[in-house]
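Morning - DAU inputs below, output right after.
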Amino acid sequence: MRALKNILVSGGAGFIGCNFIRFLFSKKDFSGRIINLDALSYAGNMANLSDIETQFGGDRYFFEHGNICDRPFVERVFKEYDIDTVVHFAAESHVDRSILGPQAFIETNVVGTWTLLDSARCAWKNTDNSLREDVLFHHISTDEVYGSLTETGYFTEKTPYDPRSPYSASKASSDHFALAYYHTYGLPVTLSNCSNNYGPYQFPEKLVPLMILNMIDGKRLPVYGDGKNIRDWLYVEDHNAAVWLIMEKGKAGDTYNIGGENEWENIKLLYTLIDIVADKIKADPQKIKNTITFVQDRLGHDRRYAIDCSKIKNNLGWKRTVNFKEGLERTVEWYCANHPWIENIRTGEYQRWIEKNYSQRSKK
Ligand code: NAD
Ligand code: DAU
């Protein structure tokens, strides 16, 4: 088992990254330090970890505001904290945005990933140019790199890459760079490709939180195309437990698929979610169902994703622990209980951290 001590988490202020940091600090056997490096794009939110900052800040938790494409900044972070482990979540993550404007996806997902990989390679060189052995770069990726399935079959780790959106093309490119650094330079890299996550702190542009908030607000529920596209849903904590297992025990150079074995047509997911929300807010489910609106389909909308995750189950002993209904209930509960978090996103207040923080620093 690897001893992971000074862990650089890129994108730790986003949805999965902040849940990962929470997960690590909740583990009794974790005693390392976490350095959260995040540019605070529209998807990054300092409020996601304010309690962690209060409890562990300056001791075992550190926040470094900056861009993974900024090489001198990244190099400084590696040196200052003696980083021995990277878990790389930072990305532009929303497919619809990648269709509207692919450039940021190429910059962050491709150039940014390469910058992190190359900075790690340089920071982890011994004086004789060999690489340290007590280090690890874990790259977080997506099932979308495999393309789209018809009604049958599953993505395995051997499925050829066939990305079809600018987002998945940029993630596929970053995956290739990560493995190229393993094969070419011997950088200890592990990689995971996960299916759709849901849970607390997800930015309300993604299907599950967008629909929950629209239901609460009585707004229409926009369903793309015929609503029969299929995704494989996994509660974010189960994803993060899998990531940690790979980091501790995964084989360098290997890829692990992570999935919920939980396929849902979007429209059926929506019906289930409506029942849960209606029950929670004491509303008539039929009234909410009447707000479903079929809208123009996403360009190049992948029809079906489904993951075969037998490798991580058999080799590392991972299994999903949260069933879908329970996970959705917890998620609905969280969005209903965190009104200020939602309001700060609606008003844009959450993005004022940078402005406030830097003006305070310049006053000192
Ligand atoms: P997110 O959009 O919620 O968060 C991304 C984070 O990265 C934000 O905090 C943002 O500020 C930060 N970031 C963006 N550009 C940056 C840059 N140039 N430099 C530094 N930080 C930057 O994303 P998420 O949903 O938490 O996804 C995290 C990772 O998991 C991504 O790599 C994504 O491709 C992958 N993934 C996501 C899902 C999913 O369902 N959400 C599923 C599989 C894989
Ligand atoms: O599969 C893993 C991927 O899952 C991750 O790599 C991505 O980062 C993450 O965003 C997610 O991508 P999707 O495109 O599958 O997620 P999204 O929530 O955007 O959409 C889920 C499905 O719901 C998809 O078929 C499109 C549909 N949809 C989405 C939205 C936002 C709608 O019908 N209406 C909507 O308003």
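Note: Residues 6-361 form a domain with the Rossmann fold fold (CATH 3.40.50.720).

O.
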